[in-house]
Amino acid sequence: MGKEKDRGYDPVIVGLLCNWCTYAGADLAGTTRIKHPQNMRAIRIPCSGRVSPHFLFTSLFQGADGVFIGGCHPADCHYTSGNYYARRRFALMKSLLDFVGIEPDRLRLEWVSASEGDRFAEVVTEFTEGVKALERPHSLKRDGLES
Amino acid sequence: MRKIGVFVCHCGTNIADMVDVEKVVAASGRIPEVRYAVDYQFTCSAPGQDQIKDAIREHNLDGVVVAACSPRMHETTFRNAVGSAGMNPYLVEMANIREHDSWVASDRDEATRKAIDLVRMKVKKVAKLEPLEEIVLPVTRRALVIGGGVAGIQAALDIANTGVEVVLVEKTPSIGGHMAQYDKTFPTLDCASCILTPRMVEAAIHPKITIHTFSEVVESSGFVGAYEVKIRKKARSVDLVKCTGCADCLEKCPVKVPSEFEAGLAERGAIYRPFPQAVPNVPVIDREHCTYFLKDGKCGICQKVCPTDAIDFTVEDEIVTEKVGAIVVATGFHFYDAANYTEYGYGRYPDVISWLQFERLTNASGPTSGKLVRPSNGEAPQTIVFIHCVGSRDPSKGFPYCSRVCCMATAKHAVIARSKLPDAEIFSFYIDIRAAGKGYEEFVRRAIEQEDIEFIKGRPARVIEKNGKLVVRSEDAFSGRPIEVEADLVVLTNGAQAQDEAPELAQTLGIGYDQYGFFSELHPKLRPVETNKAGVFLAGMCQGPKDIPESVSQASAAAAKALEILSKDELSREPQVAEVNPFRCTGCMDCMEVCFYTAIEEDEFMRRKVAKVNPGVCQGCGACVAACMDGALEMKIFNDEQIYAEITGLFAIPKGARKAGGGESAHG
Amino acid sequence: MIDRIRDTARRWLADGIVDVFLGFRKRPDGTVVPVRIRDAGEADGLFFGDGCVHNLMGLVDLRSEEKVGVLLKGCDGRAFVQLAIEGEADRGRFKVLGVVCPGLSSNGSLEEKCETCRYNTPPVYDELVKEDGVESWEKGPVADGLAEVESMSHPVRAAYFKNEFDRCIRCYACRDICPLCYCEECVTEKSRPQWVEVGVKTSSNFYWHLIRAYHLAGRCVACGECDRACPVDIPLKYLNRKLSREVEELFDYVPGTDPDATPVLLEFKEDEEHVLCPGDES
């Protein structure tokens, strides 16, 4: 096999999906064969309330072009309130990152239930398109900052 | 350096068709921590598992990545597999290259690159896994069954018959559910109450069953093996012990309101029992309609006539707490409101009736003693029209799903109508006939061929009243021509709908539900009665439309699953729990604030206040870990180091991989 | 006013109400430094006025069991309240001598942090002193100076902060002086995993400043000590102010102003989905 093709700006998205809702919703998108863009690499976490700012910062600095967090709908959290804490934390993480140069379209917190396979594909498609539409990597990648 | 094995599954063609499995194996081999990488047709099969076990022994592996389906599908399978080869079961992770990749990708190169990335991320995570021991907890050997319909009764009896105590909670004043209202059951036409009533009584007198009727679950805490549930026992106003069920009070009550049990075809008093065979056979006072409560103590006739002094207007709602180890939810359904279809005139024309009203009209214990008559004038109808799928299979107006039981129920109704009115003309308008079930298709054929019921394919457009007749207008889909029937009685077969309170109960119990409000099973095929909450099981219509035999089977299945827990003194579970590093902990107790389970308490370490996690109570959500700024809280299975490894693993392209053209560099 | 401060400190120490008193002293060269006194006789050396910019809550040993008397301005008082609601400062151990702060100047002009001050009086105190003619006041949101950065495009913002953070020498003065940084061991010193790389590099500097700001989200009391301590003049306050504004707009919370509040990231409202798309609330 020859040289890798240069794919230009082909964004990589880190997905942090809660085990009970969004990860299962992503599974259902698979089971029902709903095709969608494949830029996201999903990491299973127990709950959106598990998301620490480090997960976002590390993803972005290491090279992710976007971070997608998926949790259970409000009132439906498997652990009752993890998603509510996640919501507050995420709002502040996003605003801080926005302030220092990360476009808001690169970060998204979405509620996708285990029965919403179609919606999972829909929101991931929309988010991926949004990250693609920025047309270039963001400025905080480690390699970019050190060059 | 860890010695990790990577096992890439073809899943037949499910993965291999879209992902270049050989390339994934080759790329895995280039990751420094990987000692052994191989592919197989079906890694979950016995020979597939043997391949893993052999490799563990042969290559002395201390970590395994299985690149296959979702861990929600087979994580336990592979944990058990590596466990039987002597490896700690918590040293295995699954890279989801099927649901999250091959099944949703459209491009083979892209899917292959993604699979390679997902495997590498998991290898990096596995390199940070540590051997773990399961947590062992005592089990409260009692069960709670929520809902006293046929499914709830079955589950309660099945569990209680093994000697385990059961608490059965029913919202209405009597157990029995919808089945108690039906006349006959399809396809055998045996009398519904003849088969149900004995089971109700059996539950009532069972020494191991405690029944709380007129009661609701309001709070639930704890976890599998040790739930604590608060039940509101609504004030019945009639003493369950003193009342003899003589019914003197019922006759004297001056209030008249439509009877729910009779589907509005008859009236009941403010003090009432839903039906004569009610269990318990003790009336209840409906305080919203009772004169005593509405007019400040005036009336009280029932109290005066009661020979045993059983009536007490002063009792209040009571909260009882029950400790149980497992919960079966069997809260049933309610009928779709046919009045939403204004074109059919339900609620406007008295001779347009619902499914349940038809049941009551034909039931020997119903308001007409089983005489099938027009509600408007009490005369026998000459022409009857049944309309299927009212509220079902209709995304625009009702629900998109099929309620499953209505085709058979309508066939049953038509056959009952025929037996009562041999000369009547009977039509049944349907979209499709769904009669999958033992003896079901035969029953429909009997209705058509022997009972002379005319089945017409078509969804009627409207029903209008004209000269005392109900004109049903439809299209006959086979001939393509419009058709009009002048009917005396129109029966709308309204479908099943989730209970209005279902989402609220789901939130109380912490279980999932779908967009319609039906509770979600853990896996549609393999775990049909389990929920996402360990120890909570589903039975009957609350999980989705199903008929009586299916509800009863599911109830027995749920009982068996509950007994799987309740048959043990101790339960072991995944050690996915938080943990405090007391050296780093500042004792700010932020973790305690965000813990829903009150699993965190104050402790002392080197004469300082620190936090401490109770692993028996912790459910492993990780909210405290994210709240801890000191980095003093960690958790097992999803700890910071493991997640860090998984994130950075995405970008850790092995040296030389690019040159090998292995497809690792998914990102620029 | 200085006399009343000295009298109070002397009385508290002499009566054994406190073991130690934290205040300010003016040195012969005219500079002002914080001072910790244990003897009532030392109270005569206490001072208050221009130069008393330090947040004395940053000098309190939170782990000690000594009874502490402390002189607090409005901003310092907010730090005390925030520490109290976070369970770090035990109200019973502290005697607070509040100052209605007249605003501090240096070289004839008001300190920057005083220009943007919103609370000139500590929210809680045991005794309060003030100069004649200086009244307590509270202000709503004030201009926070972020408009310039916010008008930049995202790549330009990143370049702006890269330029600032490039100078960071990772001395951690910003952290060490902060009254609200009280972790046993800072996250930057955590090695499993090494979230924040140790080296003085633009990317790890960037990471450090982001996590520092996030850890102060909903907690920063705008005392400006981090800015003052920074030897290379990184505008740290911008990050803090940005988050303070978000916290106030989204959650209606101003850190350290309400002794009965719950820290903003330790609670939630079920019905606040709008925080995910600020500005769309209508």
Task: Report on the architecture of this protein.
The complex is a heterotrimer of chains A (147), B (668) and C (282). With 147 residues, chain A is α/β, with parallel strands linked by helices. Chain A has one domain: Rossmann fold (3-Layer(aba) Sandwich), CATH 3.40.50. Chain A has five helices and four strands; from the N terminus they run E-H-E-H-E-H-E-H-H. Chain A has a four-stranded parallel beta sheet, with helices on both faces. The termini of chain A are far apart. The mean pLDDT of chain A is 93. By secondary structure, chain B is α/β, with parallel strands linked by helices. Chain B is 28% helix and 24% strand. Chain B has five domains: 4-133, Rossmann fold, CATH 3.40.50; 135-234 and 317-332 and 508-572, FAD/NAD(P)-binding domain, CATH 3.50.50; 235-316, 2-Layer Sandwich (Alpha-Beta Plaits); 335-497, 3-Layer(bba) Sandwich (FAD/NAD(P)-binding domain), CATH 3.50.50; 577-635, Alpha-Beta Plaits, CATH 3.30.70. In chain B, the strands form twelve sheets. In chain B, strands 10-7-6-18-29 form a five-stranded parallel beta sheet. A five-stranded parallel beta sheet of chain B has the order 20-27-21-22-23. In chain B, strands 2-1-3-4 form a four-stranded parallel beta sheet, sandwiched between helices. In chain B, a hairpin with a 2-residue loop joins strand 11 (215-223) and strand 12 (226-233). Chain B is built from 19 helices and 34 strands. Chain C has 282 residues and is α/β, with parallel strands linked by helices. In chain C, the strands form two sheets. In chain C, strands 1, 2, 3, 4, 5 and 8 form a six-stranded mixed beta sheet that branches. In chain C, strands 6-7 form a two-stranded antiparallel sheet. In chain C, strand 1 and strand 2 form a beta hairpin. The longest helix of chain C has 16 residues, at 236-251. The mean pLDDT of chain C is 94. Classes of the chains: A alpha/beta (147), B alpha/beta (668), C alpha/beta (282). Chains in contact: A-B, A-C, B-C. Chains A and B meet through helix 1, strand 2, helix 2 and helix 3 of A and helix 3, helix 4, helix 5, helix 14 and helix 17 of B.
